[in-house]
Amino acid sequence: MKLVHGNRVTLLRNGAEFFPALLAAIDAASDDVRIETYIFADDGAGRAVGEALKRAARRGVNVRLMIDGFGSRELAPEFVVDLRLAGVVVQRFRPERGLPSFRRSRLRRLHRKIALVDARVGFVGGINILDDHSGHGRPAPRYDYAVRVEGPLLAEIYPVVHRLWWLEAALSGKERRPGFLPPEVHPGPAGDTTAAFVHRDNFRHRHDIEAMYLEAIRGARREIFVACAYFMPGWRVRHALMEAAGRGVRVAIVVQGWSHHRVFQHASRVLYRALLDHGIEIYEYGSSELHAKAASIDGRWATVGSSNLDPFSLVLAREANVAVYSESFAREVRASIDHEIHHGARPVRRLLWRRRPWIARLAGWVAYGCARLAMGIAGIGRRWF
Q1: Active site annotation includes 343
Q2: What CATH number has the domain bearing residue 207?
Q3: Is 291 part of the annotated catalytic residue set?
């Protein structure tokens, strides 16, 4: 990781804090707006962001939007046409064609969520362009995080976003200009926070996010707090967590207690027994849909981003996290996760978990077997387990 000094990093909780900040930044844009997202929905949040993008394009701002071809497959063509007519340049990352498949190439999705405005402000996190209440049918809003970034760290983010845009445009035949010229970005200091931009692609940075977590976990001395929507870490991360707990570190993990993806949830629960036996605390979040991907370690380091601790994020998808070396920020993330533990989650008790009915244990192992089979077809099973 390249550590960059002189930043201001602000934690944004849920869409209630994220969307007003994003809309204000877009409406203040004078030159350039770039957005990448997995899901762009035609709901209240999506329409508000869409209108802001159209307003920016009409006043002469260069607006580029990249949406994932699978995650945003339900976005109506009319919605996209309306954006394009206003001057917004829209690309779909790997548009879906044909029947669904477990082929590795089909599973390489754009899962990161990044917004950049005028080389002045950026947003990185796990929040899609999607209403907090869309799709999960619960009264409480979806539990998620993003960060607002100002300062020199933006110079690390812009080339990554530009590179993917240029690559996809070139592959689709829409980019005919020779050469590769990332934008000139030289933001000055905006604060006193040290941070790093850590991303995963399928070339030079395939293991960067996993390595980031491993380094932080192995260096923990007091506590590890993790909130993770989809939790099925590979053996390296599992062993690191168990070794941390073995040397007296408190390890608390918040995972989904309610999920659309029931097979994956049952499969991930197979890992509980070994983790609980090593003294790791597991909490299942039930107030709403948990979509967060964040961690805080020892009150000095924290990360927020789009990457889960599962094979989709750490082996296949394009992801992006911000790692922050700041006691105040790490304590804020830790306090937020701890609040959700006490107000929205229930603990998984070790002895009760070991006494589950046989049918529940069988369902877990069947789901785990299905997950291993799917990963094997995708070519990642042996390395992961």
Answers
A1: no
A2: 3.30.870.10
A3: yes
Q: What is the pLDDT of residues 327-359, one digit of tens each?
A: 999 999 999 999 999 999 999 998 777 788 878
Residues 170-208 have pLDDT tens digits of 877 665 554 556 677 888 999 999 999 999 998 889 999
Same domain assignment for residues 72 and 133: yes
| Residue 113 a catalytic site member | yes
Exactly one of 54, 162, 199, 293 is catalytic; name it. 293
Indicate left, alpha or beta for 94 from its phi (over 0: left) and psi (-120 to 50: alpha). Answer: left
Instruction: Identify whether 2 is a catalytic site residue.
Output: no
| Per annotation, catalytic residue among 32, 68, 118, 201 | 118
- Active-site residue, 174 included: no
Residue 190 included in any domain: no
Residue 116 in domain = yes
Expressed as residue numbers, the domain containing 217 is 200-384
Co-location of 214 and 255 in the same domain: yes
Task: State residue 174's pLDDT score.
Answer: 63
Question: Active site residue: 54, 133, 266, 291, which one?
Answer: 291
Is 298 labeled as catalytic in the residue annotation?
yes
Tokens read off for 266: 């049952």
Number of domains into which the chain is organized:
2
Asked if 283 contacts 348 with a C-beta cutoff of 8 angstroms, the reply is: yes
Per annotation, catalytic residue among 32, 68, 132, 298: 298
On whether residue 195 sits in a domain, the answer given is no
Structure tokens at 362: 């069988």
Residue 167's contacts (CB-CB under 8 Å, 6 or more residues apart) are none
